[in-house]
């Protein structure tokens, strides 16, 4: 009884050990590593963009994004999707995990989150941040709206950069997730919808009239998100951030398939539904 | 068929005799519920990066991006734009004398004339911008230095501006309206355009100064204190003008009460700080003529500058830009070129991956899985 109270996991019969290790233990390792890698990626990307902007703002530490966005980014816009991934993700279902116990080996060899994996994640973040800053920068350089008025102002640029970031980070999460339940879908699309809802409501007339100093971005969402070149920039940025990842992963599956990939393909080919 | 994992097999064995529960009474079942949610077997979609999905995706993206890029590039090339730098850096430049002999307090304005030739007529609405380079409107302390409550017409903020405006908050013991460094550095050059006929006569080109700011800025964000109907001189009594201004805020356009005070459109355009150190801001609009003549015909023009704004001290540059507009905004070939490049790279990558898949991709046989 005392052993049960002081343990992380306890179970009554030895036959449960196999399931604990090969299914839940493996899934737990996978989820934690994916969560960590993704979390580092999204926050490094978010931060490195400021590094690039420093060269263009006189190194004065001016933020690229709206202050409210910075507050809500980790709290509202990207919290639930990554939580959903770390609760439900499975790369291989439990029956197959039993049948192929050597799927457990990557956990023993510390393959999913090591110094190399962290370094690769940081490198990916640097690349993403370069794309996420310089494509909007070049697209907005000396540009105007389709009625001749300003679009290269600080507030519109901030909105563009943050929209690109949120969409890119969402797409990256969708690539990382390998088990899409309804809950995951709801979290991901809900968070993206929440971003637009919160942005439009913070940048509306009413919020500004009541709190002018706290919500100075009034009108920015309406005036810049109705421009085709803004949306074309967002599309280009997201695709350019994500394409190398897709190509790299596809190449790995083709050239150096891991056991997970092989089992995964087998699962899909036989339409396994057990 | 995509695998949707739904495990119908009953996996738990029977509950062993309850440890620690004594005798009679209801046995509380500590088993977690056997629902799909709690037993990790929610129905799900498990996408895998197969050749059947990735390769077509690459080709489709390539085939979509290239025409978009071509469209953008062609549109951008059809936009007409003319830039004239009138800072007066070279000795030979017309505005050289003005740029040298300048101080904030000089009462006599310095005038210079820059002639230029338009070798293509400009059709449809032409927009006139002033552009600045090396001017960091995005510096953190500069961006903070404003009081949005004051600009929104709040009476309390008019007499007691925000601390963020320091050191441009008070002057002569009176609060500054509008306060802050952004307002203080308002661009105050005056630019006028004249067309020189082939027979030598000058015609002034009509420049419209309203409709240059965002609607939300003009009607919601910036409001004069006490509404628009009051006499602004009275409303702004007790405040002083910004340190580097020559006129007060209620003298910005006395002839038009809808463009005076905080809702002056040139002021609003300036207060919308730029994101990058090289930027352009809308100055005037030249409306298209109703008949078939071009808005700006081919020929000789002259730009008359009232040179008030000093930029030489920080190696800044001033320029005047005349530009037509399209659905994608001003002239910017970058997006077109980027789309064409990414589309072609994508297509090429698709071909490379297809080759690799054909040569090496058949290793995923189940016979290979050691078990």
From TrEMBL, chain A:
**Subcellular location, in the record's words?**
Membrane
Q: What is its main location?
A: membrane
Q: Give start and end of each P-type ATPase C-terminal domain.
A: 4-258
- List the record's Gene Ontology CC terms alphabetically: plasma membrane; trans-Golgi network
Q: Is Transmembrane included in the keywords of this UniProt record?
A: yes
InterPro entries attached here? Answer: ATPase_P-typ_TM_dom_sf, P_typ_ATPase_c
What SUPFAM superfamilies does UniProt report for this protein, alphabetically? Calcium ATPase, transmembrane domain M
Question: S-adenosyl-L-methionine: is it a keyword of this entry?
Answer: no
One GO MF term, please? ATPase-coupled intramembrane lipid transporter activity
Annotated membrane topology is: Multi-pass membrane protein
Keywords, sorted A to Z:
Magnesium, Membrane, Metal-binding, Transmembrane, Transmembrane helix
Gene Ontology BP terms: Golgi organization; phospholipid translocation
Q: Where are the transmembrane segments?
A: 35-56, 68-88, 117-139, 159-179, 186-204, 230-252
What name does the UniProt record give this protein? P-type ATPase C-terminal domain-containing protein
Give the originating organism. Answer: Hucho hucho (huchen)
Q: Tell me the organism's taxonomic lineage.
A: Eukaryota, Metazoa, Chordata, Craniata, Vertebrata
UniProtKB/TrEMBL annotation, chain B:
InterPro entries hit by this protein: CDC50/LEM3_fam
Membrane-topology annotation of the record: Multi-pass membrane protein
Q: Which UniProt keywords apply?
A: Cell membrane, Cytoplasmic vesicle, Disulfide bond, Glycoprotein, Golgi apparatus, Lipid transport, Membrane, Transmembrane, Transmembrane helix, Transport
Signal peptide start-end: none
Residue spans crossing the bilayer: 48-74, 334-356
Question: One GO BP annotation here?
Answer: phospholipid translocation
For this record, an example GO cellular component is:
apical plasma membrane
Q: Which family does it belong to?
A: Belongs to the CDC50/LEM3 family.
Q: Spell out the protein name for this chain.
A: Cell cycle control protein
Species assigned in the record:
Hucho hucho
The organism's lineage is:
Eukaryota, Metazoa, Chordata, Craniata, Vertebrata
């Amino acid at each position: 009884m005392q052993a049960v109270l002081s343990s992380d996991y306890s179970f009554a019969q030895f036959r449960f050990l196999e399931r604990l290790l090969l299914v839940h233990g493996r899934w737990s390792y996978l989820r934690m590593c994916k969560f960590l890698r993704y979390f580092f990626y999204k926050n490094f990307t978010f931060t490195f963009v400021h590094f690039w902007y420093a060269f263009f703002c006189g190194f004065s530490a001016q933020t690229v994004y709206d202050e409210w966005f910075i507050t809500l980014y980790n709290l509202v816009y990207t919290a639930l999707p990554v939580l959903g991934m770390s609760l439900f993700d499975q790369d291989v279902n439990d029956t197959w995990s039993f049948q192929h116990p050597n799927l457990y080996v990557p956990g023993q060899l510390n393959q999913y989150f090591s110094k190399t994996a962290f370094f690769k994640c940081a490198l990916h973040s640097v690349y993403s941040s370069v794309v996420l800053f310089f494509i909007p920068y070049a697209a907005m350089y000396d540009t105007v709206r389709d009625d001749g008025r300003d679009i290269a102002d600080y507030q519109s640029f901030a909105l563009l950069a943050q929209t690109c970031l949120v969409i890119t980070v969402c797409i990256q999460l969708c690539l990382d997730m390998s088990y899409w339940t309804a809950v995951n879908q709801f979290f991901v699309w809900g968070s993206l919808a929440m971003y637009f809802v919160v942005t439009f409501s913070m940048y509306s007339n009413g919020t500004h009239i009541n709190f002018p100093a706290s919500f100075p971005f009034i009108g920015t969402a309406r005036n810049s998100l109705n421009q085709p070149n803004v949306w074309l920039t967002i599309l280009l940025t997201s695709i350019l951030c994500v394409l190398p990842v897709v190509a790299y992963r596809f190449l790995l599956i083709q050239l150096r398939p891991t056991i997970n990939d092989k089992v995964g393909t087998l699962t899909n080919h036989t339409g396994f539904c057990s | 068929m995509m695998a949707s994992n739904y495990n119908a097999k009953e996996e738990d064995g029977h509950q062993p005799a309850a440890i620690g529960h004594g005798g009679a009474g209801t046995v509380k079942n500590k088993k977690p519920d056997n629902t799909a949610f709690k037993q990790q077997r929610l129905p799900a979609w498990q996408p895998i990066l197969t050749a059947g999905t990735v390769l077509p995706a690459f080709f489709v993206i390539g085939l979509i991006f290239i025409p978009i890029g071509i469209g953008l590039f062609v549109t951008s090339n059809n936009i007409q734009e003319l830039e004239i730098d009138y800072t007066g850096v070279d000795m030979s430049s017309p505005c050289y004398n003005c740029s040298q002999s300048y101080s904030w307090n000089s009462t006599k304005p310095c005038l210079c004339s820059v002639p230029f030739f338009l070798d293509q007529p400009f059709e449809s609405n032409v927009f006139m911008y002033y552009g600045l380079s090396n001017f960091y409107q995005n510096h953190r302390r500069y961006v903070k230095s404003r009081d949005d409550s004051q600009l929104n017409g709040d009476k309390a903020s008019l007499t007691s501006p925000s601390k963020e405006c320091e050191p441009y908050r008070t002057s002569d013991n009176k609060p500054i309206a509008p306060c802050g460094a952004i307002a203080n550095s308002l661009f105050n050059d005056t630019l006028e355009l004249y067309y020189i006929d082939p027979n030598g006569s000058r015609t002034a080109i009509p420049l419209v100064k309203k409709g240059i700011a965002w609607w939300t800025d003009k009607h919601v964000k910036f409001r004069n204190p006490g509404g628009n109907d009051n006499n602004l001189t009275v409303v702004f009594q007790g405040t002083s003008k910004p340190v580097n201004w020559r006129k007060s805020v209620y003298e910005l356009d006395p002839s038009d009460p809808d463009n005076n005070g905080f809702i002056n459109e040139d002021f609003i355009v300036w207060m919308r700080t730029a994101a990058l150190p090289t930027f352009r801001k809308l100055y005037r609009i030249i409306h298209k003529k109703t008949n078939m003549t071009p808005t700006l015909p081919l020929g000789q023009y002259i730009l008359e500058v009232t040179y008030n704004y000093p930029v030489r001290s920080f190696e800044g540059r001033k320029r005047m830009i005349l530009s037509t507009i399209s659905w994608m905004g001003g002239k910017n070939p970058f997006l077109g070129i980027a789309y064409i490049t990414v589309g072609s790279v994508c297509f090429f990558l698709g071909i490379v991956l297809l080759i690799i898949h054909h040569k090496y991709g058949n290793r995923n046989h189940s016979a290979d899985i050691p078990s």
